């Protein structure tokens, strides 16, 4: 499932390449045909990301709400201007899986998590890209413009030079400003959106009232925004916190550590495009981790393998219908 860092990266992609531009919208799949008709001819005026949801504002106070859910992703094609605030894992501007650049050899993620052209659920997108501004070179495969539709595209947004295709979202709907405000009001704090200190106090206060296991609360988007299965497992391990402890029994200092660590890891995810959760790696180990998520995490997806700290076998179980990975010794 795409987690909060992906949605913030998508929002930055739209900010650089769509805000201020008029779009032509279509729904090749047909499931958003009426909404696409309403959007056609309107200019994108703003973009917001909160947790796992993104909101695109258009002329006349019309908003598009997109929740990628488990399988959603945005695929970008055409000229893509790289956000200069996003650096790659090896220090380059832009994202780490750049095709057609004349820069140093990128760190590639074989799982598809970190791609300039496809952000969301990992996939290999059949698109062509012409980089702009911070990048040089062409990766145009000769296809006509706009590119051919591939797969089940719920929504295509097209400017004169850039195309964005949305596939597999849980939600894709038009909203009024009041509806957007109501949607956001239901979400827990996002450390990249809300005041960090105020968000910390709200997070701690809410969790300390709950009898629900903290491992479940971290996945509750009304408690804290953006955390998914990977970050949940890694945050709890980094805090050495048992995931089954009721929220109200978790020490205040541990909850504050979880919030501050989420802010720290989320910023890394937005910058690199990858859920890097291990610290203090030497350059070779860091490069390996950026290339393969198996080398990037402490416990996630490591069931049956020894804990990287104590050697105890990592276990996996279900919590709220999602797989939970943890170390029974380090997190006892």
UniProtKB/TrEMBL annotation:
PROSITE patterns: FPG_CAT, ZF_FPG_2
Gene3D superfamilies: 1.10.8.50, MutM-like, N-terminal (3.20.190.10)
Taxonomy, superkingdom: Bacteria
Essential cofactor(s): Zn(2+)
Alphabetical list of SMART domains matching this protein: Fapy_DNA_glyco, H2TH
Keyword Protease: no
Enzyme Commission numbers on file: 4.2.99.18
Keyword Cell membrane: no
Segments forming domain Formamidopyrimidine-DNA glycosylase catalytic: 2-100
Domain FPG-type: 298-332
Enzyme class, first EC level, given as a word: lyase
Family note: Belongs to the FPG family.
Protein's name in the database: DNA-(apurinic or apyrimidinic site) lyase
């Amino acid at each position: 499932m795409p987690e909060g860092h992906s949605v913030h990266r998508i929002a930055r992609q739209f900010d650089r390449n769509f805000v201020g531009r008029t779009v032509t919208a279509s729904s090749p799949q047909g499931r958003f045909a009426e909404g696409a008709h309403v959007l056609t001819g309107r200019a994108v005026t703003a973009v917001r990301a909160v947790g796992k949801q993104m909101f695109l504002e258009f002329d006349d106070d019309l908003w598009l709400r997109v929740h990628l859910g488990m399988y959603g992703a945005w695929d970008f094609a055409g000229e893509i201007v790289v956000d200069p605030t996003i650096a790659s894992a090896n220090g380059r501007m832009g994202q780490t899986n750049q095709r057609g650049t004349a820069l140093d050899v990128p760190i590639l993620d074989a799982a598809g998590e970190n791609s300039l052209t496809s952000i969301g659920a990992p996939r290999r997108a059949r698109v062509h890209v012409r980089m702009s501004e911070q990048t040089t070179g062409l990766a145009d495969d000769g296809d006509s413009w706009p590119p051919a539709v591939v797969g089940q595209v719920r929504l295509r947004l097209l400017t004169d030079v850039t195309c964005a295709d949305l596939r597999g979202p849980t939600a894709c709907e038009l909203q009024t400003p009041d509806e957007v405000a109501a949607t956001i009001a239901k979400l827990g704090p996002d450390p990249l959106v809300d005041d960090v200190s105020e968000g910390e106090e709200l997070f701690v206060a809410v969790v300390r009232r709950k009898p629900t296991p903290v491992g479940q609360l971290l996945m509750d988007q009304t408690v804290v925004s953006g955390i998914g299965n990977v970050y949940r497992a890694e945050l709890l391990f980094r805090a050495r916190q048992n995931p089954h402890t009721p929220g109200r029994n978790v020490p205040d200092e541990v909850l504050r550590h979880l919030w501050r660590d989420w802010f720290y890891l989320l910023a890394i995810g937005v910058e690199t495009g990858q859920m890097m959760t291990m610290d203090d790696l030497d350059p070779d180990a860091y490069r390996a981790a950026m290339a393969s998520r198996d080398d990037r995490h402490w416990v996630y997806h490591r069931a049956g393998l020894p804990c990287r700290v104590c050697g105890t076998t990592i276990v996996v179980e279900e919590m709220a219908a999602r797989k939970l990975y943890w170390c029974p010794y380090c997190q006892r």
